[in-house]
Structures are given as structure tokens and as C-alpha cells.
Design brief:
Blueprint (H helix, E strand, L loop, with lengths): L1 E5 L5 H14 L5 E5 L10 E4 L4 H10 L2 H10 L4 E4 L1 H6 E5 L20 E6 L10 E5 L9 E5 L4 E5 L4 E6 L2 E7 L2 E4 L10 H15 L1
Parallel strand pairs: 1-2, 1-3, 3-4, 4-12, 5-6
Antiparallel strand pairs: 6-9, 7-8, 10-11, 11-12
Helix pairs in contact: 1-5
Length: 210
């Protein structure tokens, strides 16, 4: 199978390496490849949107037509992972620091994909200098707590009825799943622990059986 990582800005190489290792761990044939053009989306059996600067990534995705291609891929049932900035872009609603929905036309405008029935606070855990690591219990993930890395991290403020909460930190939702969508507020690719990448690949196996 082919896992495509949106490679416009952010932690692209780390995700590529993590998925390659996860594929080997699961003994699954396949490859992880960068997505830089809209025509590269359709050939991927799974898609990951990495952390980085959400405004920059969303504008580049929009200008290159990748946003619409990912939305079409979602309609086809393609599993999609969003980490940190990627989680922000998956959301249907993005709020500011006062909990107000972002208005179109603002300087910091983000073009979300609007796929996941969640409301996200973009800077819930503070700015870059307030980054941290914390052990998380992730529902469905065996073994010891996951060493989650939070960098200028968002949090999920609200979930719709079809969203399963997988993990919390300080009573804030930081991991959730809705069907073939997996949203994480942290950076699993920076940990050396590939369990969440393997978890996502197992989602692709389930999707292929349907």
C-alpha cells in the first residue's frame, strides 16, 4: 500500500521514516511517499497531514488543489491521519483563544478540510516555548503509556456523536477517531515509538475489508 504524507511544510521526513518502520514492523508491503501535487493524492491508500504551521500548510494545500483532492479521498473512504496542525485542518470548527469560531477573512485564516466533527482550540497548550512531553494512555493502544510530544499543541474542545475519544491530557481531548479519521494533538513521529503509526495502518487494513 502507499501512504502519502502532505509534504508542504512541517514534520514530513519524520512521518515518512515512522511509516516505513511501521510497515516493516507489520510485515506489510508498501511505501510512504510525499504528496506535493494534487494528482499524487488519488494514488494513496492512506494520507497523513503532519504537524507544522497550520496557516501555512492550509494555504499551500488550498492553492495547489490538494484540499479538494483530500476531501474527495475521504468520500472514497481513504483513512486520513492529522497530527497537531493536521488535527486542526481535519476539524469542522476552529476556535480562537477566547473560544470564538474563527471568522473568514482574518489574517491568520485557516482553510480547514472540515471532515471531522470536532471543534479545536488551535493553541490550547500555549506557545512554542511551552512545549512538553507527557505519557498518555491511548484507548486501543497496548503496552505502556505513549510518550506524546506537544509543541504549540491544539486540543479538541468538543466532539460530535460519531467521534470516539481515545486520549486526554489534563482533561483535554488530545486523541480522537471518527471512522477512518484519526486526529492527534501531539507529534507521534518525534518519539521513536511507532505504535500509533501501526495503529493507523491497521485502520487502513480495516477500511480495505469493507
Amino acid at each position: 500500500m502507499r501512504v502519502g504524507i502532505v509534504a508542504l511544510q512541517g514534520d514530513v521526513s519524520e512521518h515518512l521514516e515512522s511509516f516505513q518502520k511501521a510497515l516493516r514492523d507489520l510485515a506489510r508491503p508498501g511505501e510512504a511517499v510525499p504528496i506535493r501535487r494534487r494528482e499524487e493524492v488519488a494514488g494513496c491508500g492512506a494520507i497523513a497531514i503532519p504537524g507544522g504551521e497550520s496557516t501555512t500548510i492550509s494555504r499551500l494545500m488550498k492553492s495547489r488543489g490538494i484540499t479538494e483532492e483530500i476531501q474527495a479521498a475521504h468520500r472514497r473512504g481513504t483513512p486520513i491521519l492529522g497530527t497537531c496542525a493536521g488535527l486542526i485542518l481535519l476539524a469542522r470548527t476552529i476556535t480562537d483563544e477566547l473560544g470564538r469560531p474563527k471568522k473568514q477573512g482574518m489574517t491568520s485564516e485557516v482553510y480547514p478540510l472540515g471532515l471531522m466533527d470536532i471543534e479545536v482550540d488551535r493553541n490550547a497548550f500555549g506557545r512554542q516555548r511551552e512545549s512538553f512531553e507527557a505519557p498518555l494512555q491511548i484507548h486501543g493502544l497496548p503496552g505502556e503509556p505513549f510518550p506524546a510530544v506537544f509543541i504549540r499543541a491544539p486540543a479538541i474542545q468538543r466532539t460530535g456523536p460519531g467521534v470516539a475519544v481515545l486520549g486526554r491530557h489534563e482533561n483535554r481531548i488530545v486523541a480522537a477517531r471518527q471512522g477512518n479519521l484519526l486526529g492527534l494533538a501531539f507529534h507521534p513521529e518525534l518519539t521513536g515509538d511507532h505504535r500509533l503509526h501501526r495503529y493507523f495502518l491497521e485502520m487502513t487494513r480495516s477500511a480495505a475489508k469493507r
